[in-house]
Amino acid sequence: MAVLRLRRFLLAWLGLSLIFSSAVGAELRGLSEQELKAAALNQVVHFVRWPGSSFLDSTSPFVIGIYGPDPFGGILDDLVRGENVSGHPVKLVHCFTAEAAANCHAVFISSADLRTADRLVHELSSRSILTVTDARTVESFGAIIAFTVEEHRIHIIANLDAAKKANLTLSSKLLRLAEIRKERP
C-alpha cells in the first residue's frame, strides 16, 4: 500500500510540474509513457474552463472518458480517485461509442486508430468536450490537446481553433507550456 501511495504522489507531482515548469514538458525518468500521459491528462483538465451549461448542477460529476481500449491500465483510475475539477467530483468512464463519449467533459482518444479518432472528434467538435489524444497530428483531425512523449518528456500541443469551436477556454498557464497549433485550412 505504501508503494502505491508513493507512486500516486510521484504521478501527481509530475502532473503539477507539467503545468508549472518553465519548459514545455517535464522529465521524470523511471515512469512509463502511459504513466506520463495519465498524469498529464489528470492535470490538464484543471486548466480548462467549461461553460456553466456543461453541468446539470453543482454536484454533477466531472466525467473523463477513455474512448476505446484503456491505454493506461488502471493508472488513471488511481490518479482521479478522490479528485475534483472545479468543485465537481471526477468520474472516469470507458466509452466504446460516440454517444457514450458525448456524455463526458473530457475524452482521451488513443492514436491507435486515427480514422476512428477523426470520426469521433468530428462528432464531438461542436460540444463543450475536451478531446485529448496522443496523436501528433492534432490539428489535422480537430482534437484540442495532444500529448507526445519524447525522451521521457511530455510535449503538449494545443489546437486553439478546436478549443474555440468547443466553447472551451484554455488557461494561459497551460498555453505557456504548449505548442500552439491551428486547424489546417
Structure description:
This protein is α/β, with parallel strands linked by helices and 185 residues long. It has one domain (2-181): Rossmann fold, CATH 3.40.50. Helices cover 37% and strands 24% of the residues. The strands form two sheets. Strands 3-4-2-5-6-7-8-10 form an eight-stranded mixed beta sheet. A hairpin with a 2-residue loop joins strand 7 (145-150) and strand 8. Helix 1 (2-20) packs across helix 2. The protein is globular. The protein starts with a helix and ends with a strand. Mean pLDDT is 81; it is low at 18-27.
Name its key features:
single chain; 185 residues; Rossmann fold; 8 helices; 37% helix; 24% strand
Q: What percent of the residues sit in helical stretches (DSSP H or I)?
A: 25-40%
Level-1 CATH class name: Alpha Beta
Residue ranges: pLDDT <50 for 5 or more in a row? 18-27
| Biggest beta-sheet profile | 8 strands, mixed
> How many helices in DSSP terms?
8
* Oligomeric status: single chain
> Approximately what portion of the residues adopt beta-strand conformation?
15-25%
Q: What letter string, H or E per element, gives the SSE order?
A: HHEEHEEHEHEHEEHEHE
Principal-axis shape equals globular
CATH-defined topology = Rossmann fold
What's the pLDDT, averaged over the residues?
Answer: 81
What strand order characterises the main sheet? 3-4-2-5-6-7-8-10
Number of strands: 10
Structural class: alpha/beta
Radius of gyration equals 15 Å
* Terminal Cα span: 51 Å
Named CATH architecture = 3-Layer(aba) Sandwich
